[in-house]
RNA sequence: GGGCGCAUAGCUCAGUUGGUUAGAGCGCUUCCCUUACAAGGAAGAUGUCGGGGGUUCGAAUCCCUCUGCGCCCA
């Protein structure tokens, strides 16, 4: 750039961070600074797969933290000349939104209700506690979902813009929009046609409150209080077999007793003997299985259909009948044909209709009365499976669901999916173990159907036979051009809606897909797979997936599964996992503890760049303490960048653009070149924090030592060769520093860049680590050390740094003399030194004679 | 019970293949209104590198073990 096309500098008198975010985010929007250039070929593109936040919640500091990390990488890549594909989406489909809609409007979805046009919900936020939710039709419910997510998404967008995330907002998608529904259904139909998706009636983890199936990945263990109950079963010879159970209420669904094959106590009974259940008199076999734990209770357990996942294994592997007693509403069902004993039927009659909790209480009473409860229940804390969003323990019910094969039931597929992870570079590397560990521990395929409403419908219908039974094994599928479809509203080709749910007609699948079944396709959704093949080819496989490490098992794994099936490839080259934000006491931040801080207030209080600095200081993947102190440091750094830029640019620009000539200046530039090389290497390894650390350390040295040292020379009027050299070096260093900081301090860098450059710093080239000819980075070390000693002498004398020095004698080894001679004039200027003398000595040591009262540094041992 | 990670100054953290006397910032103490910055600057003090054992000429770093903490899973 020649000096003629430089804009005149326009430096404010009092630079400030206030208002900087609004100014630049508007400028970036109107300049399309972050637009993806889709004419770029694949090798010039850096494509990022970003996590769409769940809009039904609120953005918290953890989002700010991890989203900033991704943005820092995006900004670096953009500066290296890449066309950065950096989309954002909103994850608005799914249960979280439904729950928020219910709570916000005071409604609930009832598919049997009729649609009401222009429906007005009873409330808009904060319905009273005693409000009974109003039943609304599925269509009305979905309308309300759409209304609320649109509202929530506006707020999200304003926060993310304020945070300075350099998305190309024209690439925005939402997981419920038409395009996403189409992609999601299309991918599902591909899975179906290739045999990767299937439907099956099987025991399913079930949340009785949400009335939906739950996938393995959404389930969690919680320690809850329970009690062991010793219950006596009876053998035909009159002897009792005592079992221990925490779920006596399931006694009616008992299908067998089981003990370990090597358990001497029960060995003789296996396969030959039977026992009858207490109260109900149902005869069940006594069987052996290695999962029975001889150490637990009495060593023999009752198998119920189904009390827990072990029951499911036993039921499957021992070929047992299903005798379910808990219905999908969590209440005991009425119909139990396997109980033939009259007394037993009467007893069961009392249980029917009750919840598990009520049934347990009643069951204990009945067992106590019959004398079949031995002793008293023994309280115990034990792990119980919950849906991660649920409040009541999961039940296992038998139901028809859709699954996508994910290796949970096939060794070869599992191995292939584990191997896919080797195609990805993990940051940090150890995160790959979590993936491998999770995939290795799967014990079933991916359940993708959910009995909910606000989601992408499973895009199939079923023929209904003349007897009125749907044929689940031969689903009717739409053509791809029809997508997206809603089988609850649309009729398949060759049918009319009048044939819905009648013999000889059809039935629409009522379920929607799991939210992960759609979000696992974010690369395909954002990259406009099938809709825009030219674009997709330029961005897929993507360069980078960014996400937090807790959803490796869900989002990351599911995305790999879909890509494996659809493209036979890993979806990205790099996976960057960010850590958690922890409380100062190192607990995970949580709402319940009341310690969640709203991001907007922090951005306002400390400035966005200060918060970005805090995020950028944390090493990739490392859990990090929430620290406003770090934000204060970031604010100080940003302010310093403003001030030093003002100072350097205020020196006046050198008339001619030459090279620095003074060895001092060349030394500084050589040091800076090493920093640039470090930062570049760090960023290539996705380690933004290391780059920041290197840049920051150099920057403070630059401000405190170098600028102080040369400023008198740079000010010299009229400018001589030395002044010009200093000015050239200062400007060069400033331009480099502003660009090194740009990925982190996005707003401040842009502000100071705008004072003297055209165009955005975020579109400027990342600095090249070109070493100036003949630069000796160590030359300045001796000079800095000498200056530090002079400053120390003044501080210890409790004098101002301006205090003048009559005589400065420097003792130093001969090899340092050249450096000190080169720095002599600058040292004298910066230290207000009148006379300067250089002597031979074993170590660098300054003897400082202050005026008017002389002092020497020789009174204490020199530090160097 | 399994997988992964963490433990370094009062606090938050660096410390890259083992290599002088272990670093930074915050905080603390002292001083300085100095013409880029007082929302600033100059300087100072502060460590059993979680405990124990081992390898090595040499260990915060490698190995073993114990303890404590966190996340994910069973």
Q: Find the count of extended strands (DSSP E, 2+ residues).
A: 29
Which residue ranges are poorly predicted, with pLDDT under 50 across at least 5 consecutive positions? 1-7, 590-595, 853-864
Oligomer classification = single chain
Label the overall shape.
Answer: elongated
Q: Strand fraction band?
A: 15-25%
Major beta sheet, specifics? Answer: 7 strands, mixed
- The number of helical elements comes to 23
Q: What are the SSEs and their pairings?
A:
Layout: H1 20-31, E1 45-49, H2 61-79, E2 83-85, E3 89-90, H3 95-105, E4 107-109, E5 134-136, H4 138-162, E6 173-174, H5 178-193, E7 197-207, E8 212-213, E9 219-235, E10 240-245, E11 254-259, E12 274-276, E13 283-288, E14 300-304, H6 309-317, H7 342-351, H8 356-370, E15 373-387, E16 395-404, H9 411-420, E17 425-427, H10 431-440, E18 446-447, E19 449-450, E20 461-463, E21 506-508, E22 512-513, H11 515-519, H12 522-526, H13 533-539, E23 542-548, H14 552-567, E24 572-578, E25 581-582, H15 599-606, H16 608-616, E26 624-625, H17 628-650, H18 663-684, H19 688-715, H20 721-741, H21 746-754, H22 779-796, E27 805-812, H23 814-831, E28 833-840, E29 845-850
Parallel strand pairs: 1-2, 1-23, 3-6, 4-5, 11-13, 17-24, 23-24, 25-26, 27-28
Antiparallel strand pairs: 7-8, 7-16, 9-10, 9-12, 9-15, 11-14, 12-13, 16-18, 19-22, 20-21, 27-29
Helix pairs in contact: 1-21, 2-16, 3-4, 10-14, 15-16, 16-17, 17-20, 17-21, 18-19, 18-20, 19-20, 19-23, 20-21, 22-23
The protein binds one RNA strand of 74 nucleotides through helix 10, strand 26, helix 17, helix 19 and helix 22.
